[in-house]
Amino acid sequence: MPRASFRYSSRTRILRALGLLFGLILLIDTLSLLTTYHRLTSSPAPPPPLPTDQRIFIASIHWNNAAILNAHWSAALLELVTQLGPQNVYVSIYESGSWDDTKDALRRLDAELEKLGVARTVTLDTVTHAEHIANAPSLDSPPSPGWLTTTTTSISPSGQKETIKKNELRRIPYLATLRNRSLAPLFFNDTTTTPKFDKLLFLNDVTFTSSLISLLLSTRDGDYAAACSLDFSHPPHYYDTFALRDFAFSPTTSSVFPYFGARESRRAMLRGEPVPVRSCWNGVVVFDASPFYVEGGGLGFRGVEDGLAERHVEGSECCLVHVDNPLSGTRGVWVNPKVRVGYSVEAGEEVRSERWLGGVGGLVGGVWRERMGRVAGGWKRWSDQRKVRGRVEAWKREGMALGEERREEGVGCLIDEMQVLRENGWAHV
């Protein structure tokens, strides 16, 4: 056989062997994903009963949530406290300046909680976003905590470029304040005569059921610093990208299942087991309550320093609270993938059914999308994190020059954003 023909046949055999090997790997991978799909969509075991031997503090903040309150949330909460036992819970709801029917919906809920004998605080704050914004400090006065100065450029009617400076209220410190206000009754509880609460349960404006809350409370048999659901607005894409960080303290690599780039998080998600993460909120979260009771200032919510925000750096108060939680490092923060909630009745029904993955094709496509995102998006994620870390280091150096020690432990929570309050919500600037 001529040498050239021999080389050609050898290459052909090698290519065929490689093709067969790739095909075998792809087949094994597909069979594995089919097994995963079956495991994740098979009928779950009945949830454990809700605990009746624990005291649970239920907190929630609301703004223009009348639709979900009337359609689902209020009835779901009433069912939950009934099953937990009215004597075992405290409900704290803080509403802030809504202009829809939220206040009336909460008044009706308050009356129903009264009939059940539930200890509670329902605060209806009349101050709107517009009124908060109208109280902006003067540009000539010293900076006020939670405010920052923004600069915008516009073109006047005469065609001249104009620079406009104004003080704007930061969104995250504002939200942190509301969450801390919702916690206020926890600390008024007289622990000399009444036992402390065992768990803190925060509920967003999502659709939930008592069975789902039971599953969440029982995550890892209750051994956690915090445990979260998965939340969805437009399934199969999950919602809370701002607060969720995987076990490597990185943002998720994909908005669809299995979401996570970190091996520890991704593998647990594929197995349908509690997922170790560094931070989560995701619609519903339960905390071990003990860190909130620390004398002299327990765990609470906060934003990053205003000086960092001025450098276009922001982080969710729902992420920073896990960084500050002393139990996070020993007992862990977990996402329970069996607990899935929606921001509408329709979304909630979909993610609680076997359709939550978008079918077999949705799962396979999602897994490959995450794999490609892990590789293709690696440079951008590293670059984004490097940019933020550089700004944090510059802020620290500035403090050293002024004789100040500046610290921010929650660098993994931070992103390249600046968020301010608006009359109708909030905005990036």
TrEMBL record:
InterPro entries: Mannosyltransferase_CMT1
A Pfam family hit: CAP59_mtransfer
Domain of life from the UniProt record: Eukaryota
Protein name according to UniProt: Glycosyltransferase family 69 protein
